[in-house]
Each structure stands twice: as structure tokens, then as C-alpha cells.
Amino acid sequence: MTPNLYFDDPRVHNLFHHAEKCEMPVLFHIATRDHDDYGLIDDFGLPRFEEAIRQFPGLTRLCHWQPWWAFMSGDVGQDEWPDTRRARWPKAAAWLS
């Protein structure tokens, strides 16, 4: 899924709830801003995503896109977070994919 909505948007939570209930995995991109990007939006450190994990513990999530891989690799800092979509793929993504 690639809507340009925040992780804690009620529409996203509704989808997560029903996907979890039906045991259906959700694949999504991570976005860093609410315009000129696509995916579920979060802040540096992925606090909204972390809260969604707590609220929907049975939901299988598949995350993708440069912001996700950049954050997971540790190659990006808070100052670079809004621009990770345009950044090159982090070094760790080659063996994580």
C-alpha cells in the first residue's frame, strides 16, 4: 500500500485491524513527508510505526522503500530523514533485500 497517510490515521488503523483479523499480510512503503512522496508517513525513528506494532501485534508487515532501508541500516540521521526518498539505497540494503 502506498497512500500518503500517517501510520496513525484512523483509515490506516481500520485497514490494519481488518488485515490482522483476516490474517492477511500488509506490504507498504514508508514516506518521510505528507507531500511529494508516497507510502505511510512517519517521523525519524519510526515512532508511529512502533505504536502500530503495539496496537496490531498479530499483523504481518512487509516494509519497503528507501526511508525504511536507510533507517534500518543506520546510514541516515535525523537531519537527512526528510530527503531519504531521493537518497541512494543504503549499503546494507543489498544483502537485506
Structural class: alpha/beta
Major β-sheet annotation: 4 strands, parallel
**Cα separation of the termini:** 18 Å
Enumerate the spans where pLDDT stays under 50 for 5 or more consecutive residues.
93-97
User: What's the overall average pLDDT, rounded?
Assistant: 81
* Beta strand %: 5-15%
- What is the percent of helical residues? 25-40%
- Rg over CA atoms, rounded to whole Å, is 13 Å
Q: How many structural units, i.e. domains?
A: 1
Summed up, the helix count is 4
| Basic shape | globular
Folded structure, characterized:
The chain is of the alpha/beta class. The chain has one domain. It contains 4 helices and 4 strands, in the order βαββαβαα. A 4-stranded parallel beta sheet has the order 1-3-2-4. The longest helix is centred in the N-terminal third of the chain and has 12 residues, at 10-21.
